[in-house]
Backbone:
């Protein structure tokens, strides 16, 4: 048997090297770009344009579909080595810090220094691509904001002064209660996400904007520490508790945990006037546009979009959270210079205007935002969403953020499911947070 | 090393080359298995002793952390819950659902009209053939508030239930039974076909009724099949991931988070590879232990 | 014999058969409904728009093709290699044969998602990422434990005397296998190949991780094209896609059905 064991080992070692290839040689005319599948049409169109000017550059697109965690995992894995890494990566903003700490990303500061178009990007959006080491690793591609979608018809009927312009958390809750008082069957007065089904959602779309609305933030960049204010935390929990369990104006739990709840809201619930207020992202209107999946010609008459007020309406009056995507150049990219050349083209005004026209998304460039076609009313709710940009904040994109975010989501879930009191939720949260970020990185007051 | 070979009357022309020849036949499989299965398995075990992560600092440099991942796992209340969920899932969807029901269907199908056998056979197989993700969709719609199941119970006057929310474990158990029963049924069908009719007839003539026939003749004769299906169904059910995750995401609140889902969450959502691999290692140990248990149990009675 | 018991049992059987088909109803109806949603609805207008949308998408057709290639190739390899490996286990009277076969099965206890992390790194090292060949090799490997176990059981049922008779007549081992054993093992071969084909046909995670180029991705991965990037689902096309996706597997199975039931007879009844 020992002989056989030896044969095993030899085979093993040999086979490991049998297929090993050397590092891919950098060809000066070939780059690859990895994108999510919703950008495919746009990027392919831009590649065509680019090739008209630079026919010698061959650009390969690697399109990733899949559930979001699968996709993120795949993207991260790809950047591990030169053989598999693309030259340009479509990088979700909140992973910039983690991926740069892992050594997966290449700092773009030098390239940007020679790019005169960089000033056209909104200042706060630029920060999305900056890591804790101060370097820029990503060129912003998109940004989105959160706000309150509301049903105009229900509001009017409930006697809420129109146009709906809540100035405090209480205003929103009052409106929701008025809608509830209408006594209509199956209507959800105030739809918020407390479910853990998509781990990031309840954290980003509920906890964080509310917490920021108290005037505090969970991370202090100057000090480099996580900060939790007990009263603020409890205020958020109590507010959510009021919505879900007190006044009971929140969504039925079984609806909230569904995987496709947002599709359901877009495709049927809002259209049927079954949702009073919906705390969600500006991109939700995308599918209501002409020619899209859930086309809704009268949408602007039926639905409005307003910023989320701060807790008592105190400065800056409104709050929002933004996510966004960027383009980054991986450290293991084989052809960084050629990648940058294409990236400049991809990040140009024409390119971003083109992309903006294809979707109802916000742009990250000032000059694009000034274009008349950008402001065209057929681009649903752009004006409202753009105004929210001034108030928006970005998630702390640290290494450990995904785990912190999960804790926020779990806190919201406990309140939503009414399995714990706000005090208990606070205790659990602080204990777990301490463990995740380390006691020395946490300030509790 | 003896030169004579006693293997069911098999005489070798070149006795002394037996080992070498066996190795030769086994070689292609061995190469592949070692390269792509056993080696990664070693790596998995190795990673479980590190704090490797998918991204962040620990993706670049990771340290050996000894057993700390395992200690953390065992102390994690979510892990204990996951074990409980896994066992319940295994017991009800695997053992009772697929195996026992599969056996029952196979029994029922015996000696029935060919058309009926064909029809029932095909419909049970349909589930088995359906890819996991599509299964998840089918049942997401089936269990939806306005879905098929509620439509059916609605005709009985029962109000619609949010299955995935109120009875998530039941829902995934049902889905898994739908998906996997075919395998057990086929195995038992074949085994039952192997029981000669004469024995049954003789026993019936002796005065035994069908229940006694079942207990004293049928079941003992197909003990081997039971043991084999136990093992395969167990291993298969332990590894079920896509369908559960796509259907409930492991929720609500961890109600359907089996070990497989838990492992995925840790490794691919929280990016803690080391921790996730520790869970995988534990799963491997559990699977092996259960399998050995079954086999011994079946053997012992012989 | 139309006894009461028989009729009752038949009725139960038919009920079971129908019961298993009920969940499929939604997918069938939804595929013909351009406005399909999660609830099961009779389409207002039956339309094949969904199917048209799916079939006209080149990328999806490519996906189906790749699924065939990968599933088919690995199926072939599994059969051949399993046969080769199972032969000594069955025929050579090795003491540890049963233990070896059984231990191979334990390998399947480890979840595929776990193994993919080290496998990906290994593939990078070997230059096999985004290689269809590499993916086929990996799928073959994961099909071997079960394949070998099944094949061994089939082999055990083919009497050795037949081979011995062939040897006396002057055949080599190889000839005796191809001329005597294989024909008798047809049910077994069909069983193994169908089983492993179906397994690979529906597999998403492995090709998702190991492949990159869009042209190489099999249909299982492409299913996510019917999702918006933030989780919206387009039900109509999804249903059509699902039906089309299940079709080849169902077809293959019904074609091999006769062989399959005989095949399972050999695994179940084998005393090995």
Residues:
């Amino acid at each position: 048997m020992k002989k056989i064991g030896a044969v095993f080992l030899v085979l093993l070692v040999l086979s490991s090297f049998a297929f090993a290839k050397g590092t891919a040689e950098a060809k000066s005319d070939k780059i690859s770009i990895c994108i999510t599948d919703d950008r495919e049409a746009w990027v392919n169109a831009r590649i065509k344009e680019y090739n008209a000017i630079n026919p010698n550059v061959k650009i390969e697109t690697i399109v990733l579909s899949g559930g979001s965690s699968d996709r993120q995992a795949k993207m991260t894995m790809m950047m591990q080595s030169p053989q598999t890494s693309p030259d340009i990566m479509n990088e979700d903003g909140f992973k910039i810090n983690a991926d740069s700490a892992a050594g997966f990303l290449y700092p773009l500061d030098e390239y940007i220094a020679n790019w005169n178009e960089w000033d056209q990007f909104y200042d706060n959006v630029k920060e999305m691509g900056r890591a804790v080491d101060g370097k820029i690793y990503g060129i912003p591609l998109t940004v989105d904001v959160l706000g309150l979608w509301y049903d105009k018809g229900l509001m009017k009927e409930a006697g809420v002064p129109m146009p709906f312009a809540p100035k405090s958390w209480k205003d929103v809750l009052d409106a929701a209660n008025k809608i509830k008082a209408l006594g209509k069957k199956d209507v959800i007065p105030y739809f918020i996400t407390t479910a853990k089904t998509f781990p990031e959602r309840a954290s980003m779309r509920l906890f964080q904007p509310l917490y920021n609305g108290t005037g505090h933030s969970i991370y202090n960049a100057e000090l480099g520490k996580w900060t939790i204010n007990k009263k603020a935390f409890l205020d958020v929990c109590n507010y959510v508790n009021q919505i879900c369990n007190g006044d009971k104006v929140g969504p039925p739990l079984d609806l909230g945990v569904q995987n496709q709840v947002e599709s359901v809201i877009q495709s049927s619930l809002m259209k049927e006037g079954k949702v009073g207020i919906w705390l969600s992202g500006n991109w939700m209107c995308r599918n209501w546009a002409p020619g899209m999946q859930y086309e809704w010609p009268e949408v602007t008459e039926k639905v409005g979009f307003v910023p989320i007020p701060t807790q008592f309406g105190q400065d800056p009056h409104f709050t929002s959270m933004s996510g966004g995507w960027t383009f980054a150049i991986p450290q293991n990219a084989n052809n960084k210079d050629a990648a940058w050349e294409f990236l400049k083209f991809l990040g140009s005004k024409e390119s971003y205007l083109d992309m903006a026209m294809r979707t109802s998304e916000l742009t990250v460039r000032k000059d694009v935002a000034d274009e008349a076609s950008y402001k065209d009313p057929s681009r649903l709710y752009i004006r409202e969403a753009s105004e929210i940009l001034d108030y928006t904040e970005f998630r702390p994109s640290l290494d450990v953020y995904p785990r912190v975010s999960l804790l926020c989501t779990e806190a919201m879930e406990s309140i939503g499911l009414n399995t714990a009191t706000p005090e208990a939720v606070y205790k659990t949260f602080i204990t777990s947070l301490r463990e995740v970020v380390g006691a020395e990185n946490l300030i509790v007051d | 090393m003896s030169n004579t070979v006693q293997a069911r009357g098999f005489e070798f022309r070149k006795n002394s080359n037996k080992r070498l020849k066996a190795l030769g036949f086994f070689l292609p499989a061995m190469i592949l298995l070692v390269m792509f299965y056993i080696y990664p398995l070693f790596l998995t075990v190795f990673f479980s002793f590190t704090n490797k992560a998918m991204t962040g600092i620990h993706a670049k440099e990771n340290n050996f952390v000894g057993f700390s991942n395992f200690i953390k796992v065992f102390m994690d209340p979510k892990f204990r819950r996951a074990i409980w969920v896994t066992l319940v899932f295994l017991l009800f969807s695997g053992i009772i659902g697929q195996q026992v029901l599969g056996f029952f269907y196979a029994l029922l199908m015996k000696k029935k009209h060919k058309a009926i056998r064909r029809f029932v056979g095909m419909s049970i197989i349909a589930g088995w053939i359906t890819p996991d993700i599509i299964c998840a969709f089918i049942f997401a719609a089936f269990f939806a508030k306005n879905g098929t199941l509620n439509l059916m119970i609605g005709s009985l006057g029962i109000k619609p239930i949010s299955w995935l929310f109120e009875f998530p474990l039941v829902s995934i158990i049902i889905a898994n039974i739908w998906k996997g029963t075919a395998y057990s049924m086929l195995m038992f069908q074949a085994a039952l076909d192997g029981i000669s009719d004469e024995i049954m007839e003789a026993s019936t003539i002796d005065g035994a009724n069908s229940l006694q026939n079942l207990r004293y003749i049928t079941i003992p004769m197909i003990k081997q099949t039971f043991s084999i299906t136990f093992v395969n169904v167990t291993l298969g059910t332990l590894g079920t991931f896509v369908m559960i995750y796509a259907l409930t995401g492991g929720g609500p609140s961890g109600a359907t988070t089996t070990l497989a889902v838990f492992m995925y969450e840790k490794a691919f959502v929280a990016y803690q590879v080391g921790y996730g691999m520790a869970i995988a290692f534990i799963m491997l140990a559990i699977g092996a232990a259960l399998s050995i248990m079954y086999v011994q149990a079946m053997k012992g009675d012989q | 014999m139309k006894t009461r018991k028989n009729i009752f049992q038949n009725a139960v059987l038919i009920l079971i058969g129908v019961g298993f088909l009920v969940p499929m109803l939604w997918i069938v109806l939804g595929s013909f409904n351009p406005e399909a949603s999660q609830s099961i609805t009779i389409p207002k207008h039956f339309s094949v728009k969904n199917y048209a949308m799916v079939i006209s998408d080149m990328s999806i057709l490519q996906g189906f093709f790749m699924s065939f290639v990968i599933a088919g190739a690995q199926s072939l390899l599994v059969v051949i290699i399993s046969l080769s490996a199972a032969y000594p286990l069955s025929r050579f009277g090795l003491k540890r044969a049963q233990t070896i076969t059984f231990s191979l099965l334990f390998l399947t206890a480890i979840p595929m998602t776990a193994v993919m992390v080290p496998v990906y790194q290994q593939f990078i090292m070997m230059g096999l990422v985004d290689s269809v060949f590499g993916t086929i090799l990996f799928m073959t490997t994961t099909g071997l434990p079960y394949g070998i176990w099944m094949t061994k059981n089939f082999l055990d049922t083919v009497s050795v005397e037949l081979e011995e008779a062939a040897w006396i007549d002057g055949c080599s081992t190889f000839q005796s296998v191809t001329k005597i054993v294989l024909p008798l093992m047809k049910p077994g071969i069909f069983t193994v190949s169908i089983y492993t084909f179906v397994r690979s046909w529906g597999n998403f995670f492995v090709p998702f991780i190991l492949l990159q180029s869009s042209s190489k991705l099999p249909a299982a991965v492409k299913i996510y094209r019917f999702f918006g990037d933030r989780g919206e689902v387009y039900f109509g096309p999804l249903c059509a896609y699902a039906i089309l996706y299940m079709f080849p597997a169902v077809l293959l199975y019904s074609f091999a059905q006769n062989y399959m039931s005989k095949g399972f007879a050999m695994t179940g009844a084998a005393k090995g």
